[in-house]
Hints:
Strand content: 5-15%
Bound molecules: pyridoxal-5'-phosphate
Order of helices and strands: HHEHEHEEHEEEEEHHHEEHHEH
Largest sheet: 7 strands, mixed
Number of strands: 12
Amino acid sequence: xxxxxxxxxxxxxxxxxxxxxxxxxxxxxxxxxxxxxxxxxxxxxxxxxxxxxxxxxxxxxxxxxxxxxxxxxxxxxxxxxxxxxxxxxxxxxxxxxxxxxxxxxxxxxxxxxxxxxxxxxxxxxxxxxxxxxxxxxxxxxxxxxxxxxxxxxxxxxxxxxxxxxxxxxxxxxxxxxxxxxxxxxxxxxxxxxxxxxxxxxxxxxxxxxxxxxxxxxxxxxxxxxxxxxxxxxxxxxxxxxxxxxxxxxxxxxxxxxxxxxxxxxxxxxxxxxxxxxxxxxxxxxxxxxxxxxxxxxxxxxxxxxxxxxxxxxxxxxxxxxxxxxxxxxxxxxxxxxxxxxxxxxxxxxxxxxxxxxxxxxxxxxxxxxxxxxx
Length: 374
Ligand SMILES: *Cc1c(COP(=O)(O)O)cnc(C)c1O
């Protein structure tokens, strides 16, 4: 049996006609930049997330970058000193830390919770300094980070909170949607995310209409009006074609997430009480959208190689913690600084979880895991 990690063709086959019609609609009008579908999608996403406003951008990475620029996080601090700091997790996709670095700020890492793999809020306050400007929690694998204590620290120290919700659109924390809790929320529409477009795309959401206006300026070189620049922004625009495709897909999102939860529940059931495998920990106040279903196992690399041999696709998210990346050597971190993040990088493995996966495929995956681990 063949079980790929992800099967984008299965999803596409089900909505092919509507996608093609939507793309054709954009082609016919030739409004490739800021066509009406961009605004329509922004309104739909804002509504979906329970936010005041949404601003379409060119990727999840650019959503983070645009948010950091709009909040002037990299600008010199009052008194003129450089060296702004942003507190974040070392166990994430590179874009989180990379975007902080790119605005000239310093990523300050805080270790993760061993169960959820999200930033450990109890460790954040100790990392706050007079240079801290923001906290950037990541809602990893589809589960929202523990936001109440994060927001409490942020309020106490007057920090922005930039939610990296690239893996968590539609996920909830105490019935609030990912991205709607902090100062801004950033989404990615990379094809492998729960809501993927036809290439790269992203969105920033916020409850603050003034900030939304600033974000919209930043995505278009900071211009307002056209050709007049009070700030330096970039080209962070979302293509009309991407917005049109996303408008077709958005109504399916909750159904797809539901199917992922059903698949996760089947894995959970089949692996319950099986000591060698630790299944995902989802907190009671959270509903995950399972962008990934990540287990923790001994002999992770050998298991991955075996599963590959048996036709099963898996992925390691992520093999190297951010504080150990070569490009961040100047930050001065070393191995052992964030033991839970480093352990997760050694022990975790993502299994196929996409919506169209069948029960038989999941049984096969678990059967092969048990065959290997004994
Ligand atoms: C995917 C992802 C991003 C970046 O999104 P792109 O659309 O690929 O630029 C940022 N942060 C996290 C946690 C992600 O998973």
